[in-house]
Write a structure and sequence with these properties.
Blueprint: E1 3-10, E2 16-22, H1 34-43, E3 48-56, H2 59-72, H3 87-95
Antiparallel strand pairs: 1-2, 1-3
């Protein structure tokens, strides 16, 4: 079994959501983000498009690569993302980047 990093994009307003999942990308899992789920309820899943950013072969790699993509898109301060970054957790990850 593998994991994957994905991004959902809202076709109506261009907002995005980045997440990770351990399992098959063809499953029914959409995402767990609070604001993202609200947006899906508001606009309907048919207004979103999912793109797989990459596949990962271990859970540790999955965690590391999700952090990479969150940093790459500067999600913590980018208003075009539904992701909620809990700053304490985010900074704890930054400290571990040695």
């Amino acid at each position: 079994m593998n994991g994957f990093i994905y991004v959902w994009e809202n076709r109506v307003n261009g907002m995005k959501y980045i997440g990770k999942r351990w399992g098959d990308p063809s499953g029914n899992y959409i995402g767990s983000g609070k604001y993202f789920k609200r947006a899906v309820e508001k606009y309907g899943l048919d207004q979103f498009e999912r793109t797989i950013l990459e596949f990962c072969s271990s859970k540790e790699e999955l965690k590391t690569r999700e952090k990479y993509w969150l940093d790459f898109y500067n999600v913590a301060s980018n208003p075009l993302f539904y992701n909620i970054i809990i700053l304490i957790f985010y900074f704890a990850l930054k400290v571990c980047d040695v």
